[in-house]
Protein: Elongation factor 4
Amino acid sequence: MKLNKKNIRNFSIIAHIDHGKSTLSDRLIQLSGIISERDMKEQILDSMDIERERGITIKSQTVSLPYTAQDGKTYLLNLIDTPGHVDFSYEVSRALASCEGALILVDASQGVEAQTLANLYLAMEHDLAIIPVINKIDLPSAEIEWAKEQIEEDLGLDSDDAILVSAKTGIGVDKIFEIIVKKIPPPVSGDAGFFKALVFDSHYDAFRGTIVHFRIFEGSIKKGEKIQFMSNNAQYKVEEVGLFQIVRQPQDELIAGQVGYFIAGIKNISDVKIGDTVTMADKRCDKAMAGFREPTPVVFSSMYPVASDDYEELTEALEKLKLNDASLIYEKDSSVALGFGYRCGFLGLLHLEVVQERLEREYNVSLILTSPSVMYEITYTDGTIKIIDNPVQYPDPAEISRVREPFIKASIIVPDKYMGNVMQVCHEFRGVSKNYQYLTSNRMEMKFELPLAEVVYEFYDRLKSVTQGYGSFDYEIAGYQETDLVKLDFIINGERVDALSQLIHRDKAEARARTACKKLREEIPRQQFKIPIQGAIGGKIISRETISAFRKDVTAKCYGGDISRKRKLLEKQKKGKKRMKMVGSVEIPQSAFLSVLKTD
Ligand SMILES: Nc1nc2c(ncn2[C@@H]2O[C@H](COP(=O)(O)OP(=O)(O)OP(=O)(O)O)[C@@H](O)[C@H]2O)c(=O)[nH]1
Structure:
């Protein structure tokens, strides 16, 4: 049967983190019957290892679900999964550009939170049909009427339309498909006589090359046709088109409105750009589609391979990862202590950690990362202005007339009893309270301006802990403000290690220097000589620790007996060795480089 575009629905599920998107997606997949119960592994859409371990969605994934509706017709419902963490709102906007509708999921025990609102605004920007869904109604703490009130008041949606479900037990989930068919419009375009599609993602397959994920807006596409990317005019012959149904399902043809993939022997990774328009040489469209909102990296760090001869591998791994993570940016960099590497830009600290973990696990390169930094604006005494994101670029303080740092506007939604705690944490992180308002009788939205540099560290974790998990947070960048910055250096065994330097507010420098020196003392193994570790601002030493000389037999403290424990210890030591970097005459383990950022 040939698919009619009237029978296609493209939708996303948007929600605050942990409100149950992945669980609901799994349920919908299960209900559609595209895979057997036996193959239904837990949390299918969160397939990346890191996602499973951390229980958060990072990459959006697509799945096409067949559904026979009450009108007897078969529909193809394309679900585009979206991540929930603030760092990844860029991925959300990409997914939404390919949809006509969205389910907005609200946890019945948590209610509307900061990212529920932020994601709703994104969906409205894309003119999507929005269907409210209240999840976790099985929980004893579920308060359905309260959640409905918030859907009316905070989101401005009709709560009578809300579908009540438990993604966990499956209650109510079967109603969702029918409502999607009725409330979300089919794709509108399609018959303009040319071919136009939007690349919203891509990944690399070792056997097939680059696999492009796309949404077709005009025309249709078959194997053998010649596509052309609008950004660089590169042309390729299509080898396969198909749908994502957990595995790739090749199809004879994909039509306007569909979401799927094509393979075209694309070996040159840089030819595929997320947000690019695809057309065909003989059915060319004259204008590219508006791409996505450009991701703006806010945190920068340099990456170096632990073994210098792994540089080529790192280069290749970054190229491949970039294909799957358009928001990652990088350029060549070098360090006196660590040799050749890359300066990379990230959407936030979680993004940085995810990239590091993916490079290490999926591409097998051991890495050292330098202290993350935001972008600072430096005005020199001669009037020139420069933006820097790397402590090594920090000029001699005598040449500086002014430094400004980026601030964010933060919106924090909490039950009002945590108001005092939130105030305190924000002040600790150099924040300034702007205003607050009650959303309901006991929940409030508090607005702050905070320095981005503070927020990228541990702000989110601290906020969660002082609000017992009830505080939710969303932010946008709000320009630069003047600041009192210093460059904090670390000197190990008399050598300044450039890769450890950090830019930090003067008021925080001493405390950071003290904790960092302690951490370094714990992380750097003893060697055959005494190692002084110092924190310094310019020529002034502000903290100091010493690692005493070596005790050779690491197993000595195991007091005979337990041979397996001894072996474990030796193995651990051996593994540790591989992750060591010689800096001057001192071996520094990979873990030491990030430990200097920890504040407790
Ligand atoms: N009791 C109950 N728990 C649920 C329900 N739906 C999801 N959960 C649980 O809530 C937690 C978060 O669910 P996820 O599906 O991972 O949440 P998510 O919104 O996808 O989170 P991200 O992928 O990080 O954005 C998990 O522990 C789920 O088991 C539900 O209907 N009832």
Notes: The chain is about 25% helix and 35% strand. Residues 13 and 103 are 5 Å apart (CA to CA). The chain has five domains: 5-183, 196-280, 299-369, 376-483, 487-597.
